[in-house]
Amino acid sequence: MNDLLLKGSNVAVAFFVVSSTLAVGLSLTVGQILAPLKNMRVVALALAANFVLAPLAAFGLWRVFDLDEPLGIGLLLCGLAAGAPFLIKLAEFAKADMAFAVGLMVLLMVVTVGYVPLVLPIFVAGTAVNPVQIAVSLVVLMLIPLAAGLLLRARGPGLAARLRPAVAKVSTVSMILVIVFTIAAHFNSVRSVFGTFAILAAVVYTAICAGIGWFMGGSRTRKALALGTAQRNAAAAFVVAGQNFDDPKVVVMITVVLIVEFLMLLPFARRLARSR
């Protein structure tokens, strides 16, 4: 039964990653993605927030809370992986600058593909990490569906508009299934998280990342950058964890971070909308 749940979790992760990135591509044009990225100062700050400060915060909390190594690696993977497709929905809730949110999300997603394989071995010394395998997995599961969605949106906008709601539903359902299957398959591991500092670390980490994005963003980009830095790319983190780490607690920690982010960032986005 447990093996079946594990297979179900792996399939759900694949569907979640592919459908999320495909849905983004079906919703956008290349021009929409590139337009808000012409301000190089804003781009540089966004990259620093997500690929320098966010990973350092994750690594620091791993040490401060003295997390077990698999839990620390799970938190670190969340810190390294940015560009979550759910940022678009959060930005809508927050009434943020949607053009910037879209461009930011795609920029972070693309950079993540090349960044994680290079940087992860630096943080996790002595762990067998296959950079090529990570890069290939992320390209196949994220960049190719994104490119396919963009191409279909450009060549057949009517068809893309009809497909988009169905793909978005697949993304939502598969995300829920990832959480359910992961908890069910690793129930003992999930239960073991209680009584540790794993949940507290996830809460503190999400708050720190939101603060990093808020203070590094300008008046127009602050909301989107705060949400974009706090909402880590769980899809990419799941892919890397599944390809390179056998301990189920790594995936469990990513799931914990994902749940905490939803519980914290949805009301935060609503609050930002009211403070407009």
UniProtKB/TrEMBL annotation:
Record's bilayer topology term: Multi-pass membrane protein
UniProt keywords, alphabetically: Membrane, Transmembrane, Transmembrane helix
GO cellular component terms listed in the entry, alphabetical order: membrane
Protein's name in the database: Transporter
InterPro entries in the cross-refs: BilAc:Na_symport/Acr3, Bilac:Na_transpt, Na+/solute_symporter_sf
Organism: Mycobacterium syngnathidarum
Localization annotation: Membrane
Transmembrane parts of this sequence: 12-35, 42-65, 71-88, 100-126, 132-154, 166-187, 193-217, 250-269
Domain of life: Bacteria
Pfam family of the protein (one): SBF
Principal place of residence: membrane
